[in-house]
């Protein structure tokens, strides 16, 4: 189960003070992408950088990277065991995420990273990662309604929780495309703390970083991609002003294009899992806001000449699935519903029933075929591939489904 609070994590890490500086990132959508951009740019700038994001993608340790490389499994397990033994000997009763957070932070110590890019797990104020000290810059990405049972049922309440990562004397970067209510809430927190704040806007890239403006002019990027890149660039400027004052940040900006962030608008080939040769779009959109972004991308890139789309979808139990899928699936589309398997280290996460998903999708007027496949993801993918017959195919609805698909592909090769 999820238990927010800083008491347990404080006791867990007090014996191993953090030896590195941090960039801390909160938000509902985009924080993973910003983390990836920052890690990549810092590494390109010669900084020994660690990154901690959540959830993991395929293996439990792939949420921790050192210099853009996934931490070695042997080192992960060695330090994880040390953290677990400390938890037991002190009688702390830390949660799975708190154990993972402490493990990541101690791996950063062990690997002597200079900067750790850390993504908030949930919320911000009471998230285990908020134990961070020596933060170079705090970043708040796009905020939407998610995890209302734990964070609050209004956008203002959720924004207050996420703005809880802001700290005295630590400058911050905020995605300016957030709703007015969100911006007002964050500005109130900024004013209370007297912070230097940078609000970034995708249509007004930093004039001191001409490479960013050129990148936006020459590439066909979505608004959220520009906003995330702008946020990363602004945070990078602040971080380098503190640790590498003389570096030419603008010269690093083109490196944004070579950033790899699997599971987000990722194009993959399903062979040898199925016989389909054409690329498939894989995306972990799992809330209304991220689904709208995915829907815009699919409409613009895949629905050319009026083509319909075939989907393989799953969702976490408890999600509001109607706005999630009705915003991306269109009349005449074909849909296979399925269920992801157990999530390593997160036993409380369960998949929504595939029959329930099918019923939700069938309520879309004019929908083509809808078929439920239970937990049989390979059969769902095979059926969808045959139905698509070379036409656009998208796998979406859950990062855990994305993980299972990538794992199946790895095992099939």
Automatic annotation (TrEMBL):
The keyword Phosphoprotein does not apply. Belongs to the folylpolyglutamate synthase family. GO terms for molecular function: ATP binding; dihydrofolate synthase activity; metal ion binding; tetrahydrofolylpolyglutamate synthase activity. Coiled coil: none annotated. Pathway: Cofactor biosynthesis; tetrahydrofolylpolyglutamate biosynthesis. This is Dihydrofolate synthetase. Its EC number is 6.3.2.12. Keywords: ATP-binding, Ligase, Magnesium, Metal-binding, Nucleotide-binding, One-carbon metabolism. It catalyses: 7,8-dihydropteroate + L-glutamate + ATP = 7,8-dihydrofolate + ADP + phosphate + H(+). It comes from the Eukaryota. It comes from Aspergillus rambellii. One of its GO terms (biological process) is one-carbon metabolic process. GO terms for cellular component: cytosol; mitochondrion.
